Protein 1
Amino acid sequence: MDRGTERDGAVTEHAASGRIPLAVVVVDREGLVSHWSSGARRLFGAAKEEALGRPAVDLLPVSGALPDDDDPSPYGAYGAYDGLGHDLETSLDGRLYYPAAGRARLTVPERDRVDVLWWAYPLVGPGPERLLVLGADVGRLRQEDPDDDPGFERVAPAFALHTDFPGAEELAHKLPEILPSMSVEESARIVGQILELGYPVLEFSQNDRVPVTPDWGVPRRVERRARRERAARAAAQGLPLPQEYSEEGEDLEYVAVRERLEFLNEVSGRIGTSLDLSRTIIEVSRAVVPRFTDVAGTYLREQVVAGEGFPDGAPDTTTMWHRVAVEHTDEPGRWDDVVPVGEAMPFPAHTPFFQCMTSGEPVLVPRISEEMGHAIASQFEKRDIRPLITGRSMLVVPLKARTVVLGFMILLRHPERVEFNDMDRVTGAELAARAGLVLDNARMYTYQESVAETLQDSMLPHIPPRMAGCDIATRYLPGTLLGRIGGDWFDSVKLPGARTALVVGDVMGHGLNSAAMMGQLRTAVQTMAALDLPPAQLLRNLDDLAQRLGDTYLATCLYAVYDPIAGELHIANAGHIPPVLVRADDGRSELLDLPTGAPIGVGGVPFEAVRVRVEPGDRLVMCTDGLVEVRGEDIGVGLATLSESAAHPAASMDDACDTIIRALNTRGGRKDDVALLLARLNGIGSEDVAAWRIALDPVEVGRARAVVREQLHDWGLSRLASTAEQLVSELVTNAVRHSHGRPVELRLVRGDTLLCEVDDDDHELPTLLHAGSCDDHGRGLRVVSTLAREWGASRTNAGKTVWFELTIPRR
C-alpha cells in the first residue's frame, strides 16, 4: 500500500489513497443496527440476519472505555482507545456530537484475535440514521504491505480534510462507494456531512497520513490478459503493433480475431446445456464474467419470464423488463440491495437501454459520464447506483430471436480496465445472437411444457377429500419423458344411495394424443356413472365408445362402486393392474383377485364384476402401472412393494399416499406417468339410516312428513325438520301419483349432509318445468331445486330414485 506524506502542511504530489476492505454499519436513533454490510460480517463474525435490529453496543467495539465485567461483549474482552481523549463522549448509549475514531483488539467467535480500526460519524437529518461506523482489519493491512512494515503497529485511524490530498475531487466522488445503498438525496446529505466532519485517513505519524477508499476485492488482470486487450484495442483503432507483439512477429489483427473466436467458442460451449429457462439465464450471465466484462445484468420481457407466448409488438416505454440475473466481480453483495434480481421496471426513451431494445442493435458507451450516471440513477427510486456505474465502460446488447427482442444484457467494465471498443461491440452482438437463440429455445420449451401441464391439470378432476362414507386422497406424477403429459387419470363420482364410484384408468402411450383420448374416456365414464350403470355394463359401453372413436389407442380401466351402507365394493376390471385392499382389523393387505378382462378398445370381449365385502376403516388402493412397473424388472416386485407400503399405518390419507409414493417412486427407471387413488372406506352405520315403506295412498303423504319430523328430532336435527318435511311431501306426492303398484320407499341417511331418497316403480324421470301463474302443477320440483343443497334423479332396475340433500348446520 502506498503512503502519502505531508511535510509542513504541504502534501507530496504522489500521495495515494489506501485501498482497504471496509466494514460499513449504520446505527439508528434507538441505538440499533439498521445496516450491516458483508464486510461487517467478515470482520465482526455476525451474519446480517443476526445483526440487524440488535443494539450496536453488543456488536461493535466503538467505545472509549472497557465494558463492564457483568455485561461482557459477545466477542469477549477487548482493549480499545480513541484518539479524542477522555473528555469526548463516544459511547453509543449517549449522543455523539463529533466524529470519533479508535483501534480495538477483540476476540471474534471462531476466529483469532482481530485488530480493528474504526471511524464513527454522527449523522444529522430527517432519516432514522444516527451513526455511520466504518471498520477495517489491521491484519489485512499488514498483509497488503509489500515490506511488512512493523510501523503498522503504530497506525491509527484519524480524520482530515479531503482537500489536503491530491485528487481531492476524486476522493469526494468515491466517498458514496463507502455508503450503504440509499437514495441520491440521502447519499448526498451524508456525503456532505462526512466531508465537513473529516475524511477517514490512516495516520502513521503526525505527518504521514493516507486517505481511505474502499477495496471491494476487484481481481487484478494478469499481464497476459492485459497485453491481449491492448492488442485488440490497437487493432480496432488501426494503431501500430505493440512492442510485445512486434517482437513475437505475430499479426495483430489475427491475434485479436483469434481471441474473440476463442471466447465465442468457449461461451457457446458453456450455454444451452439445459432447456430449463432459469438455468439458461444463469449460464448466459456467467459465461461473460470476468473474461469479457466485470458486470453482466440480464433483463427479459415480462412474457418471456412468465412462460407465455411470443411477445407481441415492439417494446415501448411501458414495457416491463424483469432483471433475472446479475453477475459481477465486485465484493459479494455489493449489487444485491441496489439492483436486486427479480425487480421489474420500464425504461425511458432517453436511456441507452431503450435505444438497444427498440433498434435491436448493440449500444456502446465508452465511459459513463456523471451526467449519464445521474440520468440512469434517477430511474431507481431511493437508491443511488451512481457509485456502481459512473466512470465505467458500458455495452448494451440485445437478446433477439426471430427478429423479436426478448431482452438485453448490460455489460460494464471497471474504470481501470480497457474500454469497450467497436470490436467488442461486434463480439457482443455475436454473443447476444447465440445467447438469444439459446434463451428462445428454453423459452419455447418452458411455454410448451406449461401448455402441456395446464392441459393435464384441466383434465384431471379436483376430488373432494370426503365423499359419502369414505375419505379420498389422490396423487398424479407426470412422466419423465419429453412433454410431461400422458393418459393416466383418476376420478370419483357421486352416485344415488350414498354410494361413490372410484375410477382409475390409463390410456396407453404418451403425449397430447393420449391426453386427449384420456379426456374423452374420463368424460364418458362420468356420464355413464351418473346414469348408475353397473360396473360391467359401464366398461362394456366404454369399450363400444372407444371402438367408435378409432382403433389407434387402447386403455385400461378399473371401476369400483362403494356402498357404505351395505359395506360392499362392486368392481369390474378392463386389463388394469388389480387394486390393493388393506384390512382395518389386522392391517393385512392383499391384491384383490379380479377377472382381468381385456383393455378398452380391443372390442368384443365380455367384462365381469365381483362383489367384495369390506368393513369400516378398510383402505382401497388403486393406481396405474407407471407406479409399479420398472423397465427390466418383473411387475410382481412392484405389486409386492405396493402391497407392503399400502399396509403401513399413517396419520392421514395424504401421509399414506406419500408413503406409497416414496416406497415406489425412488426406484430407478420410471418414465411413465402415475395416477394414484386411495380411499378409506368408513361406512355408514345402521344408526344413521332410516327407511319406511309408503302405501300408494295420498293420505300416506302426511305419515311420511310425520316420520321424517320424528326421525330428525331423534338425530338432533330439528332445525332441518321444516324444510325436510316440505321437500319429502313434494317427492312422496309425486311418487304416489306416478307409481304403478309397488309401494314407495322413503330413506333418510345422516352423514356429512342429510340425504333423502324416494324410490318408486315408474321409469320416467321427473323434469324441472316452468310453471305459469295459472298452472296447477309443475311447482314441486322447483321448490325442491330452490331449497335443497343438491337434488337429482336416476333410473334403477325397478324404476327410479329421486333424491335431495340438505346441509347439516354446525352445532
Protein 2
Amino acid sequence: MAMRAECIQAVTQAIGRSLTQPEIQGIEDRLRRNMRQLAQTDTTWQSKTAADRLNEAATKSAQELVAEQQLKKKRVALTILAHDRIDSYMKRFPDQPLEGLDRLLAFSSDGKSGIQSIESASRAIRDDALSRMLEVIDQTKGKFMGLFQDEAGNLALVRELHGQDSGVATAKTAAKQFQDTAEQLRQRFNRAGGDVGLLDDWSMPRDHSQVKVAKDQAKWVGDHVQWANRAKYMKEDGSPMNDVELTDFLNHAWTTLATGGVNKLEPGNVAGNGMRANRGSESRQIHYKDAESFIAAQKAYGERNLLELLIGHIDRASRDVALVETLGPNPNNQMRYFLDEGQKVTIEADPLKADKTAKQRRKIEHLYEEVAGTREPPASAAIANGFETYRALNVASRLGSAVLTSVTDQGTLGLTAAMNGMPVMKVFANEIRMLNPASAGDRRMAQRAGLGLNQLIGSLNRWGADGLGSTEQISGKVSKFSQTAASKVMQASGLNALTAGTQRAFGATMMDTIGDMSRRHPTIAAMDPADSKRLLGQGVTETDWSVWRLAQPEDWRGVGDTVLTANSIYRIPDADLVQMAKQLNTTPQRLKDQAATKLLGTVLDETNMAIIEPGAREKAMMHGGVERGTVKGELLRSFWQFKSFSIGMVMRHVQRGMAQEGWGKAGYLGALIASTTVLGGMAIQLNEVASGRDPKNMLDDGTLGVPGLRFGIASMLKGGAMGLYGDFLFSDNSQGGSSPLAAVGGPIAGDIEQVFKLKDNAAAGEVNQTGAKLVKLAKSHLPAANLWYTKAATDHLIFNQLQDYFSPGYLRRMKQRAQKEFKQSYWWEPGDSTPDRAPNLDAVVGGR
C-alpha cells in the first residue's frame, strides 16, 4: 500500500528534510507502531486530535530515523575498524592466513596466538555476568539439591521481575541482580554497534517451544487471550484491542512461533545474513498480565525451567557481545569475507594446496558454528531428543564413580600452575581451603570473581553433554528428567564440588599471582621474559597491563592478598582512565571492559588447561559437520561420548608440550606422563576397592615379561581418560565385559553388543547368563547405580543377588574370571550381604 501524502508531509516537517525512497518505504508501519506505543504510555492520548497524534508519532519516527542514520554511520566505522584489526592479525601468518582466523575464534594452548579468542572472551563475559547473579542462582536452584523446583521461590522471583511486590527480600535482591546484569550486557552490546532498545515492560526472557506451540493453535491463542496484559495491546487511537482484534493479533504471533519464523521468509532472499548487532532488537510482543500468567505459560508451552531461562539469556547475550566486539556489527559477513580472502591468498600462492585449504576452511566454519552458536536446528527434534536422553542417562548411570578417576586432575593442575609461574603448593593449599565445608566464605569470594560457576549451575559440559546455559532446547519430560538426573548424580557423587573447588583454587591463585606481578612490574616488557612471553601469547597488551595496575587487588584472607579480579578493575574511577582513553580514542568504560575480559578470559583458559573441560575446538573436531537429528549424525555424536577428556588432553597438553623449545618438549611431556600415570594408577586401585575387589597387583608382568609394565601402561591410559582400554591388557574383554571393538565405539556400541549377547549359547552344564546380563544391562542405565560410595553395597545387596537369582551360578563364574584373568580376589564376596574382611592392601605388590 502506498504511503499517504499527509504521512510523508508530517515526517518531512519533523525531520527537516526530504525523505529518501528507502525511508518512505515502510514509514507508515513505523508511524502506526509509534502511535500504538504512545497510546500505551500517554494517558491523554485518546483526548488528542487525530492531527496531534499523527504529528507526535511523526516526531518520534523522525527521531528514530535520525538515530538509525547515526547508528548506521557508527556501524560502518566499527566494521572498518574490525576489518583492519583482523586483516592485521591475519598478516602475522603470511603463509597460513586461515590459521589466524582459527586462532581468533577459539583458544589454542601453544601460546602462539597473541590474541584473546572470541571463545575465551565470550566465556569471560558470561562468567563475569553470572558472578553478579549468585542470589539469582540460589533463588532458582530449588530444594533437595535442586532436584525439585522451589515453586514458591520461583514465583516470588518472577513477581519481582514483573514489577510486583513478592514480600520476599531475597527475591527482590535476585530480581535486581538479573535486571542490572542484563542491562549492563545490553549497554555493552550497543556500545559495540548493537541496537537493542530498552523496553520498559521487558521483565525477563520468554521461552516458547515450537513443538508445544504448534500442537494446538486454538488452545494457545485462547490461553494467551486469558493471560495477556490487555494494557499493552492498544490501537492507534489509544483504545484497547477487543477480543476479536487481540485474537487476530495472537493468531499471527502463533504462526511465527509455530513455524520458527519460516512464515517471514521471502522466497528468493538469502536468510540468516542479518546483522548480529540487530539480534534481540525484535519487539517482544507477548505481554503477560502477571507472574502467575507467565509461569502458567512457561509450564504449558516452554521447555526450560527458570534458572535455565535466565542463564540462557546471559549466555546468548555474552556470546553476541564477544562476537560484535571482535568481528564488528555483522560477524557472519566479516567471517565469510576473511574466509574467502584467506582461501584465495593461500591457493594463489600454491595451487596444489587447493584441496587442503578447502578442508581447512570447512574446519574453521564448523569452529565458527560452535563459537557463534549458529548450528542448524536438528533435522528431527524427536531423534535428537531421544539420543540426548540416552546420552544423559549414560552420564547419570555410569559416571557416579568418576570422582575417583578425577584424581588425575591433580597432575594437570600442578603442571599448568608451574607453567604459569604460580606457587604449586599454594594451589594445593587453596584447593583444600576451597573444599573445606567450613570455608563457605572463600568459595563465595571465588564465585563472585567468576570462578567455578559451571558446576554451580549444574552444567554437564565437562562430561560431553549440553548443560545449563546451552542454546539447545531439550523437549519432553523424559529428556528433562535424564538431564536433571545426570546433573544431580554429578552433584551427589561429589564430583561437582571437587571440580569446582579445584577450579576455584587454581583461578584464585592465578589471580593472586597476576595481581602480585602487576604491583611489581610497570610494563609487560619489564617482566621476566618467560612471564612476558606467556601473557603476550594470551593476548594481554600493555594497555591491559596499565589498566590492571590502576586496579586495587583484593585481600582474600589467606587465599591471597593481591587477588586481581574483574570487579577490582570495574571499581577503577573513570577519572583515572580519562587521559589514557583520550590517547587511545576510546572511553574509560571500554578500557575497563577490555581489561576485565582479558583478565578473566586468561584465567579461565588456563583453568580449563589445569582441569580439562572441552571447549569449542574439541567440540568442533568431534561434532563439526555432523547433522543433528538424523540417526547417522546422532550415532556419531554418541560414538564420541566420554572421549572429550582424552581428546582435550591431546589437543591441549600435547599441543602445548610440542610447542616448547628445545628440551622443554621432553620436560613438559615427561612431567605430564609421569604425573598422570602415577595418579592414574591410584585411580585404578581406588575404583577396585570401591567395587568390592582387592587392589590389583602392580608387579604382575602378565605376558609382557617386565614386572609392573602392564599396570604402568594401564595407569598411563587411565591418566589420559582411556582407562577402559587399559583393561584389555589384562583380558580380551574389559572388566565390564565389553570387547575392544565395543569399547572403542563408546557406550552405544557396548549396549548394542550387550543386546546381541543376551541370547545365551552356554554349553551343557554351563551357566545360562541371559538373566544376569539383563540385570547388568538394566543397571547400566539406572541413574545413581554407580555412585562410588554406594556401589559396593548396591551391587552386593541388590544387583548381584538378582543376577544369581536369574542365572544361578553366575556369581561363582564371575569370581573365577576375576581370579583367572585379572588375578584378583574380593574383599566383599559377590552374593554376601556383608564383607568378611577389609581390603587386602598387600595385594598391590602381590601379597595374599
Protein 3
Amino acid sequence: MNNTISIESELKKSYLEYSLSVIIGRAIPDVRDGLKPVHRRILFAMHDLGNTFNRPYKKSARVVGDVIGKYHPHGDSAVYDALVRMAQEFSMRDPLVDGQGNFGSIDGDAAAAMRYTEARMAKLCGEFLSDIEKNTVDFRANYDNTLQEPAVLPTKVPNLLLNGTAGIAVGMATNIPPHNLGELINGTVHLLDNPECAVTDLMKHIKGPDFPTGAMVYGGKGLEDAYHTGRGSIRIRGVVEREERKGNRESIIIKEIPYALNKSTLVEKIALLVNEKKIEGITDLRDESDRTGIRIVMDLKRGAIADIIINALYKYTPLETSFGINMMAVVDNRPMLLNLKQVLEYFLEHRREVIIRRTKFDKDKAEKRVHVLEGLKIAVDNIDEVVKLIRGSSSPEEARNKLIERFELSEIQARAILDMRLQKLTGLERDKLLEELSELLKLIEYYTSILENEEVLKGVIREELQEIHQNYTTPRRSVLLDHNPSEIDIEDLIADDDAVITLSRRGYIKRTPLSNYQAQRRGGKGIAGVQTGDGDFILNFLVTTNHQWLLLFTNQGKMFKIKAHQVPEGSRYAKGAHIANLLPLHKEEYVAAAISLRELSEDRFFLFVTRKGMIKRSSQDLYANCRSSGLKAVNLRDGDELMSVMEVYPQSDCILATQDGTAIRFNIRDARPMGRATAGVKGISLRENDRVVAAVVTSDDDRTQLLTVSEGGFGKRTGIDQYRVQTRGGKGILNMRLTAKTGQVLGARLVNETDELMLLTSTNKIIRLRADDISLTRGRATQGVRLVRMDEEGTVIGFDLVRETEIDKD
C-alpha cells in the first residue's frame, strides 16, 4: 500500500482548514448576533451562572474559568481581554457587560487582574439570550463533547451594527463601526415594512456611525460606498472648543476624541509637536479629564490665533482620523462582504426563525397542557365514577389502565388524574381549570396565526423591536457633519499676517513680518535692513499678506505664481534664500516685477510696461493657469526688458515716469486688450539713454498725489491734476527737477496722507515714514525734500507703500 502524499496538496488542505478555522472560529463575527465565538461563549457562560443584571456581581475569574473550562479552550488572558472590552464604555457603544472595578481607561491603562474585578451581564445583554431555553437556536457540542453550547444567540438586537467589530483573519478582515440603537431599530422596522426599499431609503433612518467617544463624523461618498457595497471610508474629527481666560487670552479644549484613539498618546503627540515648534502658540498643555468626560486643555499665548492651532492639531495629530469600513461577516459558515440592507435582512431572517421556533415550542407546550387539562376535566365531570374505579383497583397501574379503558384517555391524562389532589374537586378549582383551558386554547390559536400568517409574524417582530427601542435607546453621541472637512491646507496653519517681500537683483528673496519695521520721522537714518552683499541691490520690495498670490514677472517676460507664505521667512537684516530654490530661472533672468493679489479675475486687467516704453493690457484670467515652469506673459523686442506689471481698469489713467524726470499721462482705453503672447503698443517716446522707471495707475480711491523718489533720497508729492491727459506715445512733460544731489528718478507711486512709505538704501538701511511728512508741492518741476539722510556714496535702491496701517510703536 502506497502512503505517499503530495506536500503541496497537503499544505493547501491544511492551510485552508486553518484559515477557515480562524475566520469562522475567531476573527469574523456572525451576521445574526454580531458576536465572535469568544464573546458568545462569555455571555452564555454568564447566563448559565445566573450572572444577570439583577443579580449580584461575580468575580471575573469565576466567569473566565467557566468559559475556558466549558466552552473556549484557549488562554485565560484572551477571554478576560474580551470580557473587559465588553465592559468598556469607550469601546462599546452599548456595553454588554456591567463591570465593577478597574476595567482599564481610554488612556490605554490595562484592567486590573481578573481576581480583583467583578462582572455581570448588562441589562441589554438579557435581550441577547431571551428565550434561548425554548429551542430558538441550534446547539452544538463543546470542544470535549461533554456539554452543549449555542451556535448563535437568539438576540433581539442588531448587534453587528450596534457595537461594531474589528478583526483580522487569514486573507481578510472586518472593521464595522458602531451605530445608534434607535436609528438601527427605525431602519430595521422600515425594511420589515418595505422589503423592496433601497439602501438610500435605509440611510434616511440610519444616518451614519455613532461612536461611544462621540466626535464629529463625515461620511459623504465614503459612507455611501460602505452602505451600498460594504467598503468605504469616513473621517472622524475630535470636538474642540475655545474658552476665554484672564488677560485677553484663550484656551483650546479638546472635549471628544476619535474612536479607538488612546488619549494619553494624543497628549504626548501634541507635546512633541509643541517642543519641535511644528505647533506654535501653546504655553501650557494639561489633561483635566475625569469620570465626567474628556478635557485636554491648551493655554495659548496672548495674540495666538486659535483657529490656526486647531487646524494644526487636525493636520498633525490623530485628532482627525480616517475609519475604513469593511462590513465582512459570517453567513452560513462563509465569510461575506455585506451592504447595509443585507446586514439588516439577515438579522430579520434570524428574528423570523427565532420567533417561529419559539412559537412552535410554546404552542407544543400549550397543546400538551391542554391535553392534560382535557383529561382532568373528564375526571372532574365524572368524579364519583373515577373515585369508585380508583378505590376498586389493587395498584396504580391497574387504576391507570381502567381509566384509559373506561374514559378513552391517554396514558398522560390518566397519570395526571391519578396525581390530582382532592382540592381540585372544589367548585373554585374546577372553575380555574376551565379558565386555564380556555386561555390556553386562545394562546394556541394565536400561536397558530403567527405560524400561518406572515403579517402576524411581522407584527410580533415589529412589536419586539419597538420594545427594544423604547427601553434601551440613548441619544446620538457623534455629530454627523453635512460638509466635508477637507484636507487641511497648509494655509490653514499660517496666519494671514502682513508681510514684506524683498527680492534682490541677484535673486535673493525673503519674507519678513511687517511688524518688524516701526514707523519713523522724515529725515531719519532708518534701521538696519537686508544685507545684500557687494554688487547686489534690492529690485522688488512690496507689502502683502501671507495668503495672497505672489505673481513674479521676470525681465524676459515670463510669469511664475506662488503663495506669499511659500517665500522663506527671514529677519529684516537676513540675506534671504536664492530665488532658484523657488523658480526655474535661466541665466541672466531675474524677477523684474511682482504683484500680490487674492485671485485672478476675468473682468480685471494687467498692464505690462517695458523699459523702452511699450505697454500691453491683457485680461487676468489669461494668466490663471500657470504651470510650475512658468508661462510667457509678454513678447519683448530686442534689447527690451519687462519693467512693471500692474492691475488696471479701463476707466483709469496711467502715468509713466522715466529716470530722466519726465512723465506722461494717458487713458488705459488707449491700449486695447490683447492676448497673452503679444508685444503691445508704445506708451511713451523716450529720449536717448532714457528709460521708464515707474508706472502708476489712477483709481477711484483718494490717492490723488504722485510721490516721486530719487536715488539721492529726495522725494516730492504732487497732485495728479498737475499731469494733463495726453495721447499715449508722446514724449510727456517734466515730472521732477533733477540735480547731482537728487540723482536720477528711482520710481513713483500714488499716495494719500494716511499712507506710509518704506525706503531701502544701498547701505542696507530701511526707513518707514508717513506720506504726510513729505511736503505737497504746488508745481511739478521741483526737486522735493530729503526723505532719508544718506551715508557717503549711498543711494535709495527700492521703496514701497504700506497701505492704511497703524504705525507700529516700540
Protein 4
Amino acid sequence: MISPFILTGKKVLQTLCKQDLGWDDPIPETVITEWENWLSQLPKLKEIKVERCYKPANMNVIDYELHHFSDASEKGYGQCSYLRMTDANGQVHTRLVMAKSRVSPLKTFTIPGLELTAALASVKVSYFLKKELKVNISKEVFWVDSTIVLGYIANQCKQFKVFVAKRVAQIRNHTLPEQWRYVSSSDNPADLCSRGMFVHDLTSNYMWWHGPEFLKHDNADNETLCSFEVTDEDPELKKVSLAINTDGNNYATILTRLNYFSDWTRARRSLALCNRFIDKLKQKSLYTEYVHVSVEELIKAEITIIKLVQREAFQYEYQLLSISNNKFDKCLRKSSNLYKLDPFIGSDGLIRVGGKLHRSNFDVHVKYPVILPKNSHMTELIICHYHNKVHHQGRNLTLNEIRSSGYWIISGSSLVAKHISKCVTCRKIRHDTLTQKMADLPKDRVEMSSPFTYSAVDYFGPFIIKEGRKELKRYGVLFTCMSTRAIHIETAHSLSTDSFLNAYRRFVCRRGHCAQLRSDQGSNFIGAREEFAKCLREMKVENIKNELLKDQCDFITFKMNPPHASHMGGVWERQIRSVRNILNVLLSNNSKILDDESLRTFMTEAENIVNGRPLSTDNLNDPLNVEPLTPNHFLRLKSKVVLPPPGNFVKEDMFSKKKWRRVQCLLNQLWKRWQREYLQSLQIRQKWLKPQRNVEIDDIVLIKDYNLPCNKWMLGRVLETNADEAGHVRKIKLLVADAFLDENGKRHKTATILERPIHSVVMLLESTTGKSPSGSI
C-alpha cells in the first residue's frame, strides 16, 4: 500500500551499498539529507488508513475485473493492481488491491527492458491475486505506457535477445496479447511506484488509491494494441547471420540433419514432431498444445528415415527394382551386396530381404527384414540402440536382437563387433588392460661389469623362527646382479627402513660397491633413498665424489619401478621363486624348529645352489661340451677393480709368464662365454610382440585394483606420460576422479595423483586433443 514511499528508502540503501559502506560507517554528506528527509516521514505513516473491505457496504456487486498497471524509470520500477466492481445499476467502484516497487538493478538496463520487467511483475501479481481473491474475476487487463513493450508482447516473427525473449515467453505463457493495453503516463498510477513519493503526498493522492478516472467509464478497455510493432532497428533484436552455400544448395537435407543425432529414439521422435508440424501447416492450424508422440507417429518417422537411407545408399539397386517390378535377379550384378538377399520393395516403399522364410508364420518384419547399409550414421544408431537394449551383451546377442526387430545390416557382424569395441560400458566390464611392445633390455643387463655393480633388491617371506619360547618373523632380502644373474641373500628382522639399511650395508661390505640399485616403491626402499639423500646433504658432496672416482666408484643410484608393476622387476622376481623352491625343499626335510642362526644357514645354502645353476641349457646334453656357465664363475673371479685393465687378451696368454695376464685371459673367456651362451638367449621377446597405441594425455582410464571388484575400480585421467628411448609409453601419471564437488563444480579437497604402469589400467575413452610422443604407433 505504501510502495511509492518505501521505494525512496530502498534507493538510499542501494546507494550506500554501492559505496561499500558498513553498518557502522557514517553516511556521506551527499546522502545524509535525503536520508533524513525520508526518515522524518516515517511518523506520518499513522495518518494513512485503509478500509479492510474492498467493496462498499451498500453495493451489490455483479461483476469483478482486475486492472494491472506497470511502469519503470531510472530510479526503479513497479506495478499496482486495482479491483473494478460494477453493481446492477452500472455504478463502478475501484480500489487498490496490491502494489510492488523495486529499485533499478545496479547492472545497466535499457528503459524498455525495465518496462518489460515491470510488466512481468504485473503478471506474477495477477497469478497471486487470482489464487487468493475469493471472487469470480470476469476480465483482466494489463496497462503499460510503453509502446515498445506492447510491440514485444504482440510480436510473432522477430527474434529477441535472451533477456527480452525469456520475459516475453513468461508473459505469453500466462496472458494473451489481447489483454494488454496502452495508457498514457499521466493516467498511469504505476508511475508513482517507479519514482517514489513522500507520505503527505501519498495520503491525498486519489489516483493511487482508486486508479485513473477512465476505469469508471464503460470503454475502459479500449483496444489499442494492434498498432504497435517492433522496428528492425530495435537494440533488443537478435542479430541473425545468413550463411550462403555457393554450390546452389542452401538447405541441408533431412538425412544430413539427422546425422547430428546420437540416439535412435530421439531421431525418430524429432522427425515425428516435424511431420506433425507439416500436417498442421497443411491443415492451416497452428494449435500449439503439446501432445506426446504416439507409436503410430514414431513408426511413420522410422519408415521415412530408413527410406532416405536406402535411397542414398542403394540408389542404383532401387532404380532397378522399380523398373524390373521386383525381378531383381535378372538385372543385378553378382558383385552387389544385395545379390544373395533376394531383395524386393515392400508396400511401404522399403527395400526388404526376400530370403527363404516365405512359408513361416512369423511377423512380416521378421520374415522380410529391412536392409540397411553398413556405411550409415543411422545404422550405427540402430546398433547402439539394440546393444543398450540387450544390456551390453556380446556380438551374437546384439545381432540377433537387431535381426529379430526387423533389420538386416550389410556386414552386420563386423559392424556390431566394431561398435562393441568402442562401447565405454563394455570396456569397463570386459576390456583387457593396456599393453605395449616389450621393451629392450636395459643397459645394465647387457654390459660387462663386475658382479653386483648393477643390482636389484626385493623382500620375500616372512619366515617364522623360534627364539626360546617366542616366535619371531624374519624376512629374506634378495640382491640380484643384473648382468650375471647371481644372487646374494641377507636376512632382515622387519620391513623398516633401518632394517633394510643394515642389510644393504652387509651386502656392500661382502660384495663390493653398488653403482645402481633397482627396486619397487616399497616404503622401506623409499625411506632408504631419502636417508641417503639426507646424509649427502650433510657432507661435502664434491670432495666425496672426487675420492670415489679414484677407485672408479660413484654414488649409489636408485631406480624404482612404478607401483603395481611387478612385471618390470621380473629379473629378480623370478629369482625369489627359485629361492622359495629351494627353501621349501630344505625345510620339508628338516622337522626341527628354526632359529635365527639356522635360518641364515638355509639362506646361504639356497644362495649357493641358485648361484650354481647354469645360465643356459642349450649345451647340457652334449658330453663333449665345456662345463655350463653359472653365476659362481663370475663371483669367484670378481676382482677389486670394476672393469678389467685395458688390453687385448688372446688364447696364447694362458701360457704367458705373466700370471696376471693368465687370470685376465681366463676372465675374458668367461665373459665371452657369457655373451655367447647366455646373452643370446635373452634376444627373443616371449610376449607383447607388437607396438600398440601410446597412451596420451587426457585419456580416460580405469585403474585396475586386484583387491576390488571391477565395478569399484577408480576412474582416472592421464596427466603425464613417460616414454622410453624407443618412444613407447610404459609409465603414466593419473589424476584420480573425485566425486566430492561443490555447487560450482570445484573440488572440496586436493586431487590425488597416482603413478601406474600401463598394464594396470583399462582404456575407456581415447583423447581427441592429446598428442603421442615421437615413435608412437
